[in-house]
Automatic annotation (TrEMBL):
UniProt organism field: Paenibacillus aceris
Keywords noted in UniProt: Glycosidase, Hydrolase
Matches recorded under PANTHER family: HYDROLASE, PUTATIVE (AFU_ORTHOLOGUE AFUA_7G05090)-RELATED (PTHR36845)
Protein name as catalogued: Unsaturated chondroitin disaccharide hydrolase
SUPFAM superfamilies reported for this sequence: Six-hairpin glycosidases
Record-linked Pfam families: Glyco_hydro_88 (PF07470)
Family of this protein: Belongs to the glycosyl hydrolase 88 family.
Domain of life the protein comes from: Bacteria
Enzyme Commission code: 3.2.1.180
GO molecular function terms listed in the Swiss-Prot or TrEMBL record: unsaturated chondroitin disaccharide hydrolase activity
Length: 373
């Protein structure tokens, strides 16, 4: 049972705890690539992993307020180490948005670093180059026989394209983002606001072949983090384009999320998975939904904004009271996230994107409006 109330003092207290925790953990994590926390310690990935933006993103989020030199140095070093991946080309995929929005775009927005702008534009060019003209989608991964696969997560990569168009004063990148977002609207998001994870197209003709369950329970289920990618991704596309259809879609997904979220717990990893004693939670889905709901609350008329802001506050209260760890025995902030339940990969542990979205949502409650996305 939650007991607190989200007010100014609560937000100040939580933000202070986030900053204090990151000050402490950054001394051990340094410029590595934390992904998931195992037995209280963040395990580091290689420099090509798709989540590598979230740790520097978290540091930049805090740096924007306190200009902590250590945080800047770590974030810059992580970004520099990712050059091998950017220039190596072969390990790049559609997640260049996750990777370089929170590193290079963030650094460029905060410090105006030219080299970071170039990295961001190179990543955006790669993303644009993955567009399949016939099917009007951005290819997801590089796997064998996956030339026609697109996934819901890619909506969070589109802001890199919107940013590139704004930065170069060239609409090409935005045209591709809009074409992909329209395909997602048509082929992924169901009338009830739930979403497919993967949709496969014929890469030659562009015709839809089938939907797949992917990281969800089944083809017709509702993977919780996929729901959050759809919610936040659609409202971000609205923010950059002003197209009402994206805001309407974000609201539809939000209503599905709100109707299905437990009042006093994190969601299970899939809203339609059978609930059994070992069914895993996914707090990262909740944190991403919360920051997305706050974005919707800013986009809609005041008369309806409270629906979304109250739902976001409810989520953040539940996360903070039941799932956050401020202790020294755990490096992660948000416990009980699940990376990939069908593969039993990192189940019910802190994962770096959960920490990032949680902190981003709290920053928004403090009034932060500029995003790195
Ligand atoms: N983008 C992959 C995931 O959400 O796990």
């Amino acid at each position: 049972m939650t007991t607190g109330v989200v007010n100014e003092a609560w937000v100040k207290d939580v933000w202070g705890k986030i900053v204090a925790k990151v000050e402490r953990t950054s001394k051990r994590i340094g410029d590595s690539f934390p992904y998931a926390s195992v037995n209280g310690t963040y395990y580091s990935e290689s420099n090509d992993w798709w989540t590598n933006g979230f740790w520097p993103g978290l540091l930049w989020l805090i740096y924007k307020e306190n200009e902590h030199a250590d945080f800047r140095n770590i974030a810059v070093s992580v970004e520099n180490q990712m050059d091998e991946t950017l220039l190596g080309y072969e390990k790049l995929h559609h997640d260049v948005g996750f990777m370089w929005s929170l590193t290079s775009v963030a650094q460029y927005k905060l410090l105006g670093t030219e080299a970071s702008k170039i990295r961001g534009l190179m990543a955006a060019s790669h993303l644009a180059g993955r567009f399949n003209l016939k099917g009007q989608f951005i290819r997801a991964w590089n796997g064998e026989n996956q030339q026609g696969w697109a996934i819901i997560d890619c909506l969070l990569n589109l802001p890199l394209l919107y940013w590139a168009s704004e930065t170069t004063n060239d609409p090409r990148f935005r045209h591709i983002a809009v074409a992909h977002a329209d395909t997602v609207l048509r082929e992924f998001i169901r009338p009830d606001g739930s979403s497919h994870h993967i949709v496969c197209f014929d890469p030659e003709t562009g015709e839809r072949i089938e939907a797949r369950g992917g990281q969800g329970y089944s083809q017709d289920s509702a993977w919780a983090r996929g729901t959050s990618w759809a919610l936040y991704g659609m409202v971000l596309s609205y923010k950059y384009t002003g197209h009402q259809r994206y805001l309407d879609a974000a609201k539809r997904v939000a209503h599905f999320y709100i109707a299905n979220m437990p009042a006093d717990a994190a969601p299970y990893w899939d809203f339609r998975a059978p609930v059994e004693p070992e069914t895993a939670f996914d707090t990262s889905a909740a944190a991403c939904a919360a920051t997305g709901l706050l974005e919707i609350s800013r986009a809609v008329p005041e008369s309806e904004a409270y629906i979304y802001s109250e739902a976001a506050k409810r989520i953040l209260l539940v996360l903070t009271e039941q799932y956050v760890s401020w202790g020294e025995d755990e490096e992660g902030i948000l416990t009980m996230a699940t990376a990939n339940f069908p593969k039993r990969a990192y189940v019910n542990v802190p994962i770096i994107y959960g920490d990032y979205y949680y902190a981003e949502a709290i920053a928004k409650l403090r009034g932060r409006t500029e995003l790195f996305w």
